[in-house]
Specification:
Elements: H1 2-26, H2 59-67, E1 71-74, E2 77-78, E3 82-84, E4 91-92, H3 94-105, E5 114-117, H4 123-128, E6 134-135, H5 143-146, E7 149-158, E8 160-165, E9 181-185, H6 189-197, E10 202-206, H7 209-217, E11 223-227, H8 228-237, E12 242-245, E13 252-259, H9 263-278, H10 281-288
Helix pairs in contact: 3-9, 3-10
The structure holds glutamic acid.
Length: 309
Amino acid sequence: MPHRHSTRLRRTLVALALALLALVVAGCGREGSPPVKGPKGSELPTYPVAKNFTLPESPTWEKAKRRGHLVIGVKEDQPYLGEKDPATGVYTGFDIEIAKMMSAALGFPPDTIQFQTISSANRETALQNGQIDMYVGTYTINDKRKKLVGFAGPYYMAGQSLLVRTDENDIKGPQDLAGKRVCSAAGSTPYQRIQAEYPKAVLVAYDTYSVCVDNLLTYQVDAVTTDDAILLGYAAKVPEELKVVGKPFSEEPYGIGVPRGDNALRFALDDALAAAERNGYWKKAYDATLGLSGAPAPEPPPIDRYPAT
Ligand code: GLU
């Protein structure tokens, strides 16, 4: 009875998917294993808020001043980078710390930031239509995007990599993806790179990487591809189930997205990042968040203070 058989299989897979999702969301390993260490509020640095700061040449800053706080676009499902606690609504991670540092430098107390979750495909539109003042969420700086938005930074250098199940032995790098189902986020640079350079891979796109990871755990796809920093966070949550394989095969410099043409805001953020790298706050923030996924703090990449647009 192939029909009944496939229904049962599908039900089993759905049940498995839900159970695994619950594990990933709860941030614990298998039953009995200790919860994975995550950023704790008490260990996070606090950033001194700039007093009497003004930036009248920046329309974005002026708008935020009238409103009384910044509205910052972020991710909510990327462990150690930008993650929202579903119970408390609190966001944590390295990108969130960068956002808080920038808020403090612009004269707005970090606890007043209004975070908005925006997916990879919607970042440029959100900045263009004024829905957010800036975006801090694993956002690669590149020339194509610079035509649509502005970028301060970079503040971190990631590289594209691959996440597979621990029982996967065939996929060791992008050269092994022919005929394999590979999942990534719509509108992301890793998706575009696979499409352009590894056309034999069978690409699957979702709005978020966490949905890709659910699909990987339930054997709907064979690999998830995006930046190593993001994938290491998922692997750290369920190390018995998932592993990152091979070496990074791109450079993904993370920038802070701002409305294009708001050069005053962009340069102020470049200055604030440079100061945070000098005075140790950048490293403190890294150690308390992304550093927990295993890698010691790297040297931050040089800031690319490109001319006014
Ligand atoms: N850094 C890559 C990008 O900006 C991938 C991560 C993401 O989608 O946020 O497209």
